């Protein structure tokens, strides 16, 4: 069975970018794309119907395991499991959410994000600047359209279109 909805390209609204690290010179940050947990729920609902899948969370030492069970149209049951550590910001909620997102990748949802280029943003801040978000969105749209993107992308303030302040 083909999982068309699960494997369809992710939209900019289904991806959240997180800062992974800052370069040694402190002049750039490295950001990585993740699927959102809402994306997981929406895609599984669309693919299997709201009653055609379920998740089970199990607490383990240091984190959580998530098992997603889905019923295929022919009645076959598919079950996959993955886990994640507690997170630093919201340890329980974040860990559960991360485990579920990692488990969804086992089904193929968001797996294409592993093929995204390495993205650096020119900034001394420790967070993604507002000017970079539209550039990240454009890159996702270009990738979804089949456009070629370098292995490493460096976003700079001058790449952003100036915004008009009222």
TrEMBL record:
GO aspect biological process, one term: DNA repair
Keyword field: DNA damage, DNA repair
Domain of life: Bacteria
InterPro entries on file: Rad52_fam
Pfam families, per the entry: Rad52_Rad22
Family as reported in the entry's similarity comment: Belongs to the RAD52 family.
UniProt name for this protein: Rad52/22 family double-strand break repair protein
Protein species of origin: Spirosoma fluviale
Higher taxonomy: Bacteria, Pseudomonadati, Bacteroidota, Cytophagia, Cytophagales
């Amino acid at each position: 069975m083909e999982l068309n909805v699960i494997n369809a390209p992710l939209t900019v609204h289904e991806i959240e970018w997180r800062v992974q690290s800052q370069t040694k010179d402190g002049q750039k940050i490295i950001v990585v794309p993740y699927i959102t947990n809402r994306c997981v729920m929406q895609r599984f609902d669309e693919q299997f119907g709201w009653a055609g899948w379920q998740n089970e969370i199990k607490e383990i030492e240091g984190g959580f395991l998530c098992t997603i069970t889905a019923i295929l149209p022919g009645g076959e049951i598919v079950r996959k499991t993955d886990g994640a550590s507690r997170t630093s910001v919201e340890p329980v909620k974040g860990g559960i959410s991360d485990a579920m997102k990692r488990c969804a990748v086992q089904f193929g949802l968001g797996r294409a994000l592993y093929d995204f280029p390495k993205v650096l943003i020119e900034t001394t801040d420790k967070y993604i600047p507002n000017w970079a978000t539209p550039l990240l969105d454009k890159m996702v749209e270009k990738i979804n359209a089949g456009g070629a993107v370098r292995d490493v992308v460096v976003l700079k303030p001058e790449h952003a279109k100036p915004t008009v302040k009222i």
